[in-house]
Amino acid sequence: MSKLFGLYGKLCATHPWEVIVAVITLTTCFLSLEKQVGTPKKNPICVGCFEEQFQAADMVLMTIIRCLAILYSYHQFRHLQKMGSKYILGLAGMFVVFSSFVFTSTLLNFLHIDLVDLKDALFFFLLLIDLSKAAVLAQYALTASNTEEIGQQIARGVSALGPTLTLDTIVETLVIGVGTLSGVHRLEMLSYFACLSVIVNYVIFMTFYPACLSLMLELARVHNYYGENELKVREKLLKENEKANPAVQRVKLIMSFGLLAVHVQSRWSLTDENTNSINNLKEAVNCSDDSSLYGMVMKQFVIGADHIVILILFLTLMVKFIFFKSKDHIKEHLEQDVLLEIKRDIQKKGHIRTTSINAESQTDDSIKFLEYEDGVNDKDTDVPRSLQTCLEIFRNDTGAKELSDKEIMMLVDTKHIPAYSLEMAVKNPERGVKIRRKIISNQMKMQSAFLNMPYQHYDYSKVMGACCENVVGYVPVPLGIAGPLLLDDKFYYIPMATTEGCLVASANRGCRALEKTGIKSRIVADGMTRGPVVRFQSITRACEVIYWLKKRENFTKVKEQFDSTSRFARLSKVSTHIAGRCLFIRFVAETGEAMGMNMISKGTEKSLAYIKSHFEDMEILSLSGNVCTDKKPSAINWIEGRGKSVVCEAIVPANIVHSILKTTTHALVDLNISKNMVGSAVSAAIGGFNAHAANIVTAIYIATGQDVAQNVGSSNCITLMEPCGDKGEDLLISCTMPSVEIGTVGGGTVLPAQGACLEMLGVKGAHSENPGDNAKQLAKIVCGAVLAGELSLMAALVTGHLVKSHLRLNRSYSEKDSPFKKSVGGSSSCQT
């Protein structure tokens, strides 16, 4: 049945002009019919007496009905207005207007009914129109991704709504049709009118409305109205289609057959004699003498029943359309209203969420963010208001909440809102990111630029003022796990975020090789550095500062100034390097759990101010003079260290070297000398006496929220291998990393995913007893993972498995051999 209605809906949507012309033609034909000659009047019995006697009662009752009908119509249009789309409201309104026109015009002409006879019944027409079905079909059409898909979506809507609507129309017609058997003339008129209105509404909905819907959207070039919510809207509509209750449908069918039997039996059993008796009774009652008590009572009884039945019919309709649907089907209404459902999904975190962040220009003040109701205020299809009006609204406390995205973009274009501070201007990070994406997309004239770049459901409040600016989304990076790694008698699973295939597998094999004996690690130094450059009038003056800083009492004063800027920063050493009149002062300090660049920069600035108070001719050229050295290869970091200086060592038994690494100790030692020692010396490498330390360091840094650019200095590593044991067949391997720049607080460590990786390692945040221990432990874990990676890669190079493993693990699945095929030449170097 649904498939049949779907084909019919597609026919209406793909041939809109033909359907519209056919409906209008039929309507015109009905309107052009001539009245039959000799048609008897519908109520010739004492009409004047009837109108004169009971005009007051009619006025009171029908006035109540009119008012309530108008209120109900207002209720339906308010429900449509909440959907946030002028298209849904306009299309549903068009359906009502045309249905009213077709019904009133055609019915009055075809049945030869005067307008005065239906002046009260017209209000029942408002109660019989259900706009929710028209709105749902419009929602189906608006989920089309392109103009060509509009017809398909309308067909889906008709296939979903058609069977239910058809059955409802039959049941309503039969139920209301019972009123035509009452024998009360006014009630019969209203019942006939109500039955026909239900049928006409159904015909218009199944013919004229889908055709106009398709034509209007195609002419207006409206497609993909819901944007990025399109899939979510379709999913909601699909779920709604699947909710049809078969029990309810069966009950409706049983009711239909029962009511049909009642109608047939009543029609056949009503003889001419019964009809004449009823008419005689009406005439006797309506035209009896007013002085007759019996006549007065009978008139009151008959007319009272008339009014009571009308009122019952009205109340039944009201209960059906308002109370029944509001209470028993409120969930259905809200789920059909897909935009409200999307709004509810976005607001799952809470109705109003406030988050404080540190702005670039405001270090102490906090900025409050309000949760943005996505899909409600984003009226991209509406025409923006004037610039002056938008400015007045924006300057209110919650002004941005009342402005659409287009209006915010207009304020950005006119320089009233800086593009870099959209999140603060609209008081919601995610909405600010969305608007910035639209602005950049329009400037690039590439509407598809951001289609595959996610931005929703991310906590940007932790990013702003800390991690990134001008945010347009986030880039997911695959996260792998290597391990367990046995380090200092404790197992760790190492999170590694990378896009390089084979890397995690290789590190995992190294962890396997070390699983029995484990790794020993030590921190040999801890001190982040900052090296400002200052200048004097002469080298003599510069040398005076060098001598001045070497005196213990002066260093103590400088340290006091430095340490006063932080609870954790503690100055441990100051070294000087002179080049002509320029003096480079390298401050070295412990920074607790933080990597410490901002912390040590603040302390250095305070110390320089103190030194300048003694040497007023000192010119501070830059807070960083490149002898720090930060994010650049340098011998000073390699020699003197920076951050955490770590050394790790492990002994790999000969049987493990053979069984897991597929090689020998002699071959590994020989390759390490030739490659990592001689080769790096020939290339004049600085800190590069290793196989691939930067690979492991960078993957862990991305996973744990470190400053990834600091892998330049943090990857300084020398890998040493030598034979050991009684027979010299065991392998002693060590990795020394003098400048691991790392922390467990601040920067990207505050982000949820990165914080989860730190928590996995047991080093998240500050140590409860000894601040700084978590950062030191993380540095040890990095060095231990580097050692595992060095061991695995060197073994792969010795056995010639490097290329084979990359061909197997570092290419798309379509280019790989079957996973059940055995690699040529033995096991892969990255076997896990």
From TrEMBL:
Pfam families: HMG-CoA_red (PF00368), Sterol-sensing (PF12349). Pathway: Metabolic intermediate biosynthesis; (R)-mevalonate biosynthesis; (R)-mevalonate from acetyl-CoA: step 3/3. Residues 58-215 form the SSD domain. Signal peptide: none annotated. Its EC number is 1.1.1.34. One of its GO terms (cellular component) is peroxisomal membrane. PROSITE patterns: HMG_COA_REDUCTASE_2, HMG_COA_REDUCTASE_3, HMG_COA_REDUCTASE_4, SSD. The chain crosses the membrane at residues 12-33, 87-110, 122-142, 154-178, 190-211, 301-323. It is a multi-pass membrane protein. Its main location: endoplasmic reticulum. It is an enzyme of class 1 (oxidoreductase). InterPro entries: HMG_CoA_Rdtase (IPR002202), HMG_CoA_Rdtase_cat_sf (IPR023074), HMG_CoA_Rdtase_CS (IPR023076), HMG_CoA_Rdtase_eu_arc (IPR004554), HMG_CoA_Rdtase_metazoan (IPR004816), HMG_CoA_Rdtase_N (IPR023282), HMG_CoA_Rdtase_NAD(P)-bd_sf (IPR009023), HMG_CoA_Rdtase_sub-bd_dom_sf (IPR009029). GO terms for molecular function: hydroxymethylglutaryl-CoA reductase (NADPH) activity; NADP binding. Keywords: Endoplasmic reticulum, Glycoprotein, Isoprene biosynthesis, Membrane, NADP, Oxidoreductase, Transmembrane, Transmembrane helix. It is found in: Endoplasmic reticulum membrane. SUPFAM superfamilies: NAD-binding domain of HMG-CoA reductase, Substrate-binding domain of HMG-CoA reductase. Gene3D superfamilies: 3-hydroxy-3-methylglutaryl-coenzyme A Reductase, Chain A, domain 2, HMGR, N-terminal domain, Hydroxymethylglutaryl-CoA reductase, class I/II, NAD/NADP-binding domain. One of its GO terms (biological process) is isoprenoid biosynthetic process. It catalyses: (R)-mevalonate + 2 NADP(+) + CoA = (3S)-3-hydroxy-3-methylglutaryl-CoA + 2 NADPH + 2 H(+). Belongs to the HMG-CoA reductase family. This is 3-hydroxy-3-methylglutaryl coenzyme A reductase. It comes from Anthonomus grandis (Mexican cotton boll weevil).
